[in-house]
Amino acid sequence: MTLPFELPTVLLASADEANFWLPRAASTIAGETDFMFQVINWICYVFFALVTVLLIVFSWRYRQRTKEGFQAGPTHHTTLEVTWTVVPLIIVIVIFFMGFKGYLNFATPPRDTYDINVTAAKWLWSFKYPNGASSEDLYIPAEEPVRLIMRSEDVLHSLFIPEFRVKRDVVPGRYNNLWFQSDAPTGDDPNAAYHLFCTEYCGTGHSNMNRRVFVLDRVAFDEWLTKQSRWIEDIPDDELYFKAGPKIYARCSNCHSLDGAVGTGPTWKDLWQRTKDGTTEFTDGTRLADLIGPGKEYATPEDYLRDSIYNPGRHLVKPYTNAMPTFKGQLNDRMVDAVIAMIKRVDEFDAKGNWKNATTK
Ligand code: HEC
Ligand SMILES: [Cu+2]
Asked: Closest-lying ligand to the alpha carbon of 121?
């Protein structure tokens, strides 16, 4: 709904100006939401004033003037009673319909949205874009409806973008959607960017989930996407294992531990040693040593690791099941190099995948 008239910014915030009550209004539904807010707000002002004035007037006018007992008051006044029932009823019905229309619009994404996958976890947001790029702040194209497909890895979180007037819970074990469109680009200036909060208290790192929303016009957005999906190209080869490794390991950590802990998949603690020595045994009875060497299935131990990532079902490590998804098409050569390099130097990482030397460099 666009209003047939313009309201001044004291009432409605604009894309670049907040007002006393409201932050900047930077989405297509913000105007309508704010209008509803101000309607209800002003109804409250008016009735507050009315009730207060009448209270003072009546308590003066009908004060006790004599000491002689009480007079019986009026018991009934049909016109008055109908008025104070019907007028609020009409007001409430109008508010309901306006609010319901706004809610339906908020709850129903248009067709052809630009979809971004959102994972909330203690304590970071991870935004995944259709081309495989990912980020921790949210980047969206301007003037296009955007849909967030949200899930949580652990506890309840809630995604709130005040400037867009949208908020929705992120619930473990289910997908929640949220859509919006912003026609007010921010560029890549962090001071101009909008705010993104987790508004469901989720533990000690809750405030780490305060992030930014950058709205870029389509050309700048495409450039950012391309650059973002190539982040790994910009890391020098010898820094790959500790700069890119942990980022990629985050996708393996559900099943593979680094410290020897038992999981869905084998720990990486002794993985390189086993692979180099060829002592790994498979469910079909073969030993890795028989598969590696000139003219055999794998020329090098690294080839075996690479194949385990792209074709996890080919040789099943004893006693594990075929539970690993393939990462073909998800991890490129350089990413696999980074992981293999990390596996080789796994003792340089703590159990969570943080590089232990990070603070000394
Ligand atoms: C859903 C659980 C799961 C995830 C996620 C997972 N894996 Fe696995 N992985 C397994 C299981 C189970 C095995 C053992 C069975 C097999 O060989 O396929 C395994 C085996 C492996 C092996 C061979 C291990 C050995 O002892 O020889 C490598 C290497 C490997 N995974 C790498 C990765 C990498 C890299 C990632 C992340 C990018 C990853 N895995 C993500 C479950 C998983
Ligand atoms: Cu949270």
From this structure: 2
Residue 132 and residue 45 share a domain: no
Whether the model pTM is above 0.85: no
How many alpha carbons lie under 13 Å from residue 198 in its C-beta half-sphere? Answer: 29
pLDDT tens-digit map of 51-77: 999 999 999 998 888 777 777 778 889
Q: Provide the number of structural domains found in the chain.
A: 3
Question: Does 270 lie in the same domain as 292?
Answer: yes
Domain range spanning residue 130?
114-229
Amino acid at 228: Q
18 in a domain, yes or no? yes
For residue 295, being part of any structural domain is answered with: yes
Task: Tell me, in angstroms, the distance from the centre of ligand 1 to residue 311's CA.
Answer: 10
Mean pLDDT on 127-148? 91
3-class SS of residue 315: coil
The number of the ligand nearest the C-alpha atom of 324 reads 1
- Does the Cβ of 305 fall within 6 Å of ligand 1? yes
CA–CA dist 317, 332 (Å, integer): 23
